[in-house]
């Protein structure tokens, strides 16, 4: 079975319930006042990290998640019931993005971590809320707010302290088996590891850490070739990169320096901040004769890097490698790559002197006009004109944001028809 670590789906929280228009009708109480209750809140979309889940397969199969709408307000000042929340469980290590803007919405790093991703709409007010000295019997009410609607990209990134990277068949799986309790598949051919393998290691000082053997890289992986992005997204979680190199050069047929630089290039091109991760170069397969020659050339070029010579097969120098990893982990900070700031980068802050409204007024000809825009839609959605009082309030809100001024400026005449989404009104100015 394929390890599912990327899923796209849609979530939509519930709409708030509408407020009610109602008046008291009690025996011996003439002209009872308003008692319409508020609408209930719409349900939220809530994600919870669950250590019992290991893939995003459920999210990949179900494309839409919706929460229940809030219920309408009722008579006698009774508020509508809140809509039920929808709960989605995800594996630990899941990162949630807005698929349209790539904005990070949540990062699940521990069991039972709970995040509200889409908040349900607020319930609308009933007419009991609008009583004042001038209007003792208002028929004003509000519709509930709309819920939030997101296209989601979910990525499952392996939670490990150390990531083993390198070309296929560099000996990463053998090394992981040697230093931990993991039993990954091992064979003498490329791409033995198709999914991330995890193991827990302990050094001589008793320090424990999680190590991930990640699928082998090839040239062009940052562009999606080979296992490409399926591999690279997992390395972003690791605090330390252990770059495992077959120092034998595959029995002298490959250039070990070129192999090292190829992988470094792919890591950097995928995510510039990867080069800021601490690195240990693990010169593997030092039990092979050609390795003793290649390591001399390699150290001459990379004299300033931390290089540890090992043999995963013969368990040579394993204690030294574990001690180096444990010591380095005590020094590094656990900062996700997406939170690392770019150095020497200038940011310009733009300010606006006026609060610009999204109002679009179009002359359709033949004495007809069309009004659109997000700010107009908010008023349209929140203030249904099913009562006369709401019609007056609707007009006042349009005046306040400048719709009337724009219509006058564009030459609207008395008797013209103004269409606002699915309603048509007569211009009486």
TrEMBL record:
Domain (Obg) ranges: 1-159
Boundaries of every OBG-type G domain copy: 160-330
Domain OCT: 351-429
GO-annotated molecular function: GTP binding; GTPase activity; magnesium ion binding
Family matches, as InterPro entries: G_OBG, GTP-bd, GTP-bd_Obg/CgtA, GTP-bd_prot_GTP1/OBG_C_sf, GTP1-OBG_CS, GTP1_OBG_dom, GTP1_OBG_dom_sf, OBG_GTPase
UniProt binding sites for GTP: 166-173, 191-195, 213-216, 284-287, 311-313
Record EC number: 3.6.5.-
A Pfam short name: DUF1967
UniProt keyword terms in alphabetical order: Cytoplasm, GTP-binding, Hydrolase, Magnesium, Metal-binding, Nucleotide-binding
One GO biological process term: ribosome biogenesis
Chain sites annotated for binding Mg(2+): 173, 193
CDD domains: Obg
Organism domain of life: Bacteria
Major localisation: cytoplasm
GO annotations of cellular component type: cytoplasm
Cofactor entry: Mg(2+)
Signal peptide limits: none
Location of the protein in the cell: Cytoplasm
Subunit structure: Monomer.
Listed NCBIfam families: Obg_CgtA (TIGR02729), Obg_CgtA_exten (TIGR03595), PRK12297.1 (NF008955), PRK12299.1 (NF008956), small_GTP (TIGR00231)
UniProt function note: An essential GTPase which binds GTP, GDP and possibly (p)ppGpp with moderate affinity, with high nucleotide exchange rates and a fairly low GTP hydrolysis rate. Plays a role in control of the cell cycle, stress response, ribosome biogenesis and in those bacteria that undergo differentiation, in morphogenesis control.
Membership in a protein family: Belongs to the TRAFAC class OBG-HflX-like GTPase superfamily. OBG GTPase family.
PANTHER family to which the protein is assigned, alphabetical: DEVELOPMENTALLY REGULATED GTP-BINDING PROTEIN-RELATED (PTHR11702), MITOCHONDRIAL RIBOSOME-ASSOCIATED GTPASE 2 (PTHR11702:SF31)
Name of the molecule in the record: GTPase Obg
Species for this entry: Spiroplasma taiwanense CT-1
Gene label: obgE
């Amino acid at each position: 079975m394929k390890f599912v670590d990327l899923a796209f789906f849609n979530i939509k929280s519930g709409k708030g319930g509408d407020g009610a228009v109602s008046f008291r009708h009690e025996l011996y109480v003439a002209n009872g006042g308003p008692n319409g209750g508020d609408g209930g809140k719409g349900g939220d979309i809530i994600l919870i990290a669950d250590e019992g889940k290991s893939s995003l397969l459920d999210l990949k199969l179900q494309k839409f998640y919706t929460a229940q709408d809030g219920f309408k307000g009722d008579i006698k000042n009774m508020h509508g019931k809140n809509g039920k929340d929808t709960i989605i469980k995800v594996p630990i290590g899941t990162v949630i993005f807005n698929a349209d803007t790539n904005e990070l919405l949540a990062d699940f790093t521990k069991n039972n971590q709970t995040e509200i991703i889409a908040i349900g709409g607020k319930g609308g007010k009933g007419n009991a809320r609008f009583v004042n000295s001038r209007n003792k019997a208002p028929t004003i009410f509000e519709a509930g707010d709309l819920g939030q609607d997101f296209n989601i990209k979910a990525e499952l990134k392996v939670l490990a302290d150390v990531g083993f990277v390198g070309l296929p068949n560099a000996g990463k799986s053998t090394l992981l088996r040697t230093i931990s309790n993991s039993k990954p598949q091992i064979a003498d051919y490329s791409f033995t590891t198709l999914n991330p393998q995890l193991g827990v290691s302990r050094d001589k000082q008793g320090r424990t850490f999680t190590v991930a053997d990640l699928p082998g890289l090839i040239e062009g992986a940052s562009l999606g070739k080979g296992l490409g992005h399926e591999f690279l997204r997992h390395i972003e979680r690791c605090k330390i990169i252990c770059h495992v190199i077959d120092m034998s050069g595959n029995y002298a047929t490959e250039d070990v320096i070129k192999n090292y630089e190829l992988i470094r290039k792919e890591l950097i091109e995928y995510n510039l901040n990867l080069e800021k991760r601490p690195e240990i170069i693990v010169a593997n397969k030092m039990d092979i004769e050609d390795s003793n020659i290649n390591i001399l050339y390699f150290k001459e070029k990379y004299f300033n890097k931390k290089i540890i010579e090992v043999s995963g097969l013969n368990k040579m120098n394993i204690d030294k490698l574990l001690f180096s990893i444990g010591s380095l982990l005590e020094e590094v900070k656990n900062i996700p790559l997406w939170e690392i700031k770019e150095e020497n980068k200038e940011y310009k802050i733009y300010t606006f002197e006026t609060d610009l409204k999204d109002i679009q007024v179009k002359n359709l000809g033949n004495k007809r006009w069309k009004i659109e825009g997000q700010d107009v839609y908010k008023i349209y959605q929140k203030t249904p004109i099913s009562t006369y009082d709401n019609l007056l309030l609707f007009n006042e809100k349009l005046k306040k944001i400048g719709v009337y001024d724009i219509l006058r400026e564009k030459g609207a005449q008395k008797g013209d028809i103004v269409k606002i989404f699915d309603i048509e009104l007569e211009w009486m100015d």
